[in-house]
Amino acid sequence: MINKSYKHWMIVFFMCCLAASSIGLCTNAIGVFYTLVAKSLKVLKGTFAMHATLSTLATALTLLKISKVIKKYSYKKVLLIGVILSSGATWLMSYSTSVYLFYILGILRGIGVGIYGMVPITVVITNWFDKKHGLATSLALSFSGLSGAIFSPLLSSWITCYGWQMTYRFMAICILVLVLPALIVPWNIDPRKEHLLPYGYQNRKETTKVQNNKIKLLTISFLCMCLFTLLHTSITGISQHLSGVAVSIHLSVTIGATFMSFTMIGNISTKLLIGFLSDLLSPIKAVIMMILTNCFSLGLLFLGVIHQEIMLLYIGSFMFGSIYSVGAVGIPMLTHYFFGNENYARTYSFIGFLTNVGSASSLTLIGYLYDFTQSYQMVFIIALCFHLINLILLVVICLRYNGVGDK
């Protein structure tokens, strides 16, 4: 069977579309609504942001079961259900006059995102790619950043011109349209069902022997990996509050949306970079480099807020996009690196759950932290502490890990 074909890269294109719709639009671009919708509903920003938290938690719970679901049922049908839930819930948000209705619709949208978001995307890429796994993963998930970079200012301008209600309807249409290529063109989640092998696959006896072993999850290394994931992804919510950061130092909402766009551009750049570095060096070294980059960005944001220096905030916002390179690309690659193909779906289902739990908790906590302190500086300090802890955890994982896929 063929292990290299145009179909492999067509699958990457489909995953790009799914990432742009599920992560880019439904997760990365929703921050532009926080300030204006909260004001319209006459609630605190943290109270409105709770709908995003509930959405992310619903995504997390969905991820625990989705790997089994996509093995049992046709993924095309599962994908259709997911996009209908996400697009439909977003459309109905335009008619919402109560924050509690936003909570319900946020949960429905979160379930939809879980059905065709991070775990299914990385499982498909892991099935289809043996070699160039890092490149394929980074290409696909970089489109979540590209989508966020394009739609954050676009949604912001639509809100200004047409109001947030109509903008939610436009957003719902975009969510659906982005998924259409993957729905229309025939393809299968397993390349062997199309008489193909994973890209660059070669039958290596030593690899087969390792991958056939079942990993024990309750190990120090796996628990450290879980804590690493939870702490890292709890920092990602800062990007959704960059619009609020701008407003807090008397800059316009439009400038705040530009900060978010710069973050999404950094998101794209660093996702592509981490995939290249992973294939060139190793996933561990690539992740460490991105964490250090993000630490530097937090320092710039901290100083930018103190001195109200817009250029520092622009540079810091761009570099802060590196947070997504680890959360979206680095963590799946580390999971694949340590646990192998055979155990990937099982291990990453739980790690993917924690990814969304971390993101969900940060969205609301950051909002409330600002509501009660009227400052984002404490948020940046806490994020730096989390990075320090994670670097220590990564060292522990590397020193103690002796399970399947140990390099």
UniProtKB/TrEMBL annotation:
Pfam families: MFS_1. It comes from the Bacteria. The chain crosses the membrane at residues 12-36, 48-66, 78-94, 100-123, 135-155, 167-189, 215-235, 241-265, 286-306, 312-335, 347-370, 376-399. Residues 12-402 form the Major facilitator superfamily (MFS) profile domain. It is found in: Cell membrane. It is a multi-pass membrane protein. This is Major facilitator superfamily (MFS) profile domain-containing protein. It comes from Faecalibacillus intestinalis. The lineage of its organism: Bacteria, Bacillati, Bacillota, Erysipelotrichia, Erysipelotrichales.
